[in-house]
């Protein structure tokens, strides 16, 4: 549906531009003939020709501008425009044009809204490359945390503690057990996947308020730079961004739910290793 919509828009704009250009060339040819023959009765006067030329040129300019903004909105092009600027333009089109249009004419507005480009790349973790489950921590000696309500079980280091609050779990070093702050540490939030979503990057976009509140995505450094990962049977996206400090989120589907594992203080290599061990050893 989305691809068809973009294709139709491109075709319509292409027809308009070619039609306008063809008309302009025909009028130009007639004007040259008139000028050579000096027969003023065969063709329109110069004022009419000038008016038509202005209209044609205006259509060409407007068509070019529309094509330019559609390239930013649907393809994140051209590259010579700064990434932040492209993101700002895309958010403006999406929120100020596509969203209101979807509310008035859903059949047109919804495909237009969904046509917006989203960042996604093919970088991935594998057990034999980026992720090593035999790394520094000996997870065999780790403690076990089981949450029967949410239907999962995980292991965590002996010198860490777990605080459970509904669908939100904090895993922090015992050094910080008397601190009111969750930083640094690991938190896991679990959400019901009611829509049976399989595109995790799309889910993050649609639920961005869970991560960045009411901020615009292009204003949060790193939030849009997502990478695919695979740890054991868990697949999803991860991204490094700035919240209270350097932060990394692993968002993935497990046991028909969406898990968001957040590392507060992701510049700490040991925390990243522990987080990946937790994901690796998570079971239902």
Topology:
Layout: H1 2-37, H2 46-75, H3 83-104, H4 106-114, E1 143-147, E2 152-156, E3 160-165, E4 168-173, E5 185-192, H5 200-206, H6 209-212, E6 227-231, E7 234-242, E8 246-254, E9 257-264, H7 269-281
Antiparallel strand pairs: 1-2, 3-4, 4-5, 5-9, 6-7, 7-8, 8-9
Helix pairs in contact: 1-2, 2-3, 3-4
Folded structure, characterized:
It is built from seven helices and nine strands. The strands form two sheets. It has a seven-stranded antiparallel sheet, with helices on both faces. With 284 residues, the protein is of the alpha+beta class. The model is unreliable at 120-132 (pLDDT under 50). A hairpin with a 3-residue loop joins strand 7 (234-242) and strand 8. It has helices spanning 2-37, 46-75, 83-104, 106-114, 200-206, 209-212, 269-281; strands at residues 143-147, 152-156, 160-165, 168-173, 185-192, 227-231, 234-242, 246-254, 257-264. The radius of gyration is 28 Å and the shape is elongated.
Which key terms come to mind for this protein?
284 residues, alpha+beta, two-stranded antiparallel sheet, 21% strand
């Amino acid at each position: 549906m989305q691809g068809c919509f973009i294709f139709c828009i491109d075709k319509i704009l292409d027809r308009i531009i070619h039609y306008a250009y063809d008309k302009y060339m025909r009028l130009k040819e007639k004007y040259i003939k008139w000028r050579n023959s000096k027969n003023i009765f065969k063709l329109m006067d110069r004022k009419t020709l000038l008016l038509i030329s202005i209209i044609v040129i205006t259509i060409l300019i407007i068509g070019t501008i529309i094509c330019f903004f559609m390239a930013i909105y649907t393809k994140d092009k051209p590259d010579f425009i700064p990434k932040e600027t492209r993101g700002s333009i895309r958010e403006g089109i999406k929120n100020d044009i596509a969203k209101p249009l979807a509310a008035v004419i859903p059949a047109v507005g919804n495909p237009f809204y969904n046509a917006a480009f989203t960042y996604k790349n093919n970088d991935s973790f594998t057990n034999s490359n980026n992720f090593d489950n035999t790394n520094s921590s000996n997870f065999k000696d780790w403690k076990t945390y089981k949450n029967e309500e949410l239907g999962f079980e995980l292991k965590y280091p002996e010198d860490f503690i777990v605080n459970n609050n509904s669908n939100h779990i904090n895993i922090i070093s015992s050094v910080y057990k008397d601190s009111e702050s969750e930083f640094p540490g690991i938190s896991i939030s679990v959400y019901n996947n009611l829509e049976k979503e399989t595109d995790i990057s799309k889910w993050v976009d649609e639920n961005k308020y869970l991560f960045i509140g009411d901020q615009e995505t292009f204003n949060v450094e790193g939030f849009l730079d997502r990478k695919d990962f695979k740890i054991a049977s868990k697949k999803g996206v991860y991204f490094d961004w700035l919240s209270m400090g350097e932060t990394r989120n692993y968002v993935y589907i497990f046991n028909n739910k969406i898990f968001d594992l957040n590392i507060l203080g992701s510049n700490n290599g040991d925390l990243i290793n522990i987080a990946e061990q937790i994901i690796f050893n998570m079971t239902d």
